[in-house]
Amino acid sequence: MNTEIKNAIQAADSEAQYDESAKRLLAQKYVLAHILVRTVEEFQGMEIEKVVSLIEGDPYISKIPVASGLTNKDRNEEGKRIVGLNTEAGERNEGLVRFDIIFYVRMRNGLAQMIINVEAQKDEPGSYQILNRAIFYVSRLISSQKERDFVKSNYNDIKTVYSIWVCMNMPENSMCHIHLTREDLLGKHNWKGNLNLVNIVMIGLTNALPESHNEYVLHRLLCAMFSNELSQQQKMKIMEQEYHIPMEESFKEEVSIMCNLSQGIKEAGIAEGREAGIAEGREAGIAEGKQREIEKVILNMHKKGYSLEQIMDATELEAAELETIIEKLK
After folding, report:
1. What rounded mean pLDDT belongs to the chain?
2. Which range marks the domain in which residue 137 is found?
3. Local structure of residue 1 (DSSP, 8 states)
4. What are 202's strand-pairing partners?
5. Which of 56, 89, 177, 226 suits 327 as a labelling partner, its CA being 20 to 30 A distant?
């Protein structure tokens, strides 16, 4: 296997592992609590420990399918039909697109619930507009509640949902709340309903660690977690001293994995760039060779059990194109 192909495969494998590690870090309850306090009005101003206590159970990581008809699963308990989130489909079918992180959280009163989805993106994709995908996800978070969180026509029982997208490698630090609004075109009739049910939050992160400033509190935490430049000790110091995140062994291990993978991706990128420089001037051959390399990377990741969504993120190709390539190479 030549060096360029080897570098491409190692980089793709490392990126897929990096994505999974990023999700596990984001799914730590103290990290989620910081995200909720800064993005969800219900939790603004609350103590982090209190928000942590309101998060129900362990968040589901890459387990719940997005596709209609697969998000929920029926089971029978003592003769009663119970509908819950489907945690098994991902194990049976690795090709399913799944929510990165999904969990229930109690509201301030400790009674009502909302559903939170957090998605990690290494950059803004070029093959589709990311907001369209976020709208699809938040729509599924609403529609999948049928039979699970409300039955028949009890639409007043629909739970508020948030789909929060953390996008890395952006040109500026940003945050945007996208939600329903009302515009009276004729008359002032009071149409009853909850406009706060559907929420999308887009968080853009640059590669640079922002200063410790109130408006960048969340961005500084997330940038520190995902930085390619900070050492493991520097990351843990920021998270522990500035954000009071308990440094349990499992958390330290995830930070260590992220640091190692970041360095591996960085070195693979340098090596790949060096190889490309040596081969400069052979445009046609390179184009053909790169296509073969990409196909080999796709097949290699497929054989190793990576999901279609993970391969899409690593290669920035559409699902249909990936399926065609996989079928051709089988």
Report:
1. 81
2. 29-181+194-206
3. -
4. 165, 176
5. 89
Judge whether 164 lies within some domain. Answer: yes
Any domain includes 228: no
Residue among 87, 44, 41 at smallest CA distance from 63 = 87
pLDDT tens, position by position, 32-57: 999 999 999 999 999 999 999 999 99
Three-state DSSP class for residue 160: strand
- Cα separation of 114 and 160, whole Å? 5
* Nearest of 143, 4, 166, 175 to residue 71 by alpha carbon: 143
pLDDT digits (tens, 9 = 90+) for 270-307: 454 555 555 554 555 556 666 777 877 787 777 777 77
Provide the domain count of the chain.
2
Q: Which one of 172, 206, 240 terminates a domain?
A: 206
Pick from 6-10, 12-16, 116-120, 282-286 the range whose average pLDDT is largest: 116-120
CA distance 301 to 303: 5
CA dihedral 40, 139, 310, 113 (to 10 degrees): 40
Residues 52 and 104 both lie in one domain: yes
DSSP state of 70: T
Using the CB atoms, write b or e for 169-185: b if 16+ within 10 Å.
ebeebebeeeeeeeeee
Number of alpha carbons in the 13 Å side-chain half-sphere of residue 65? 20
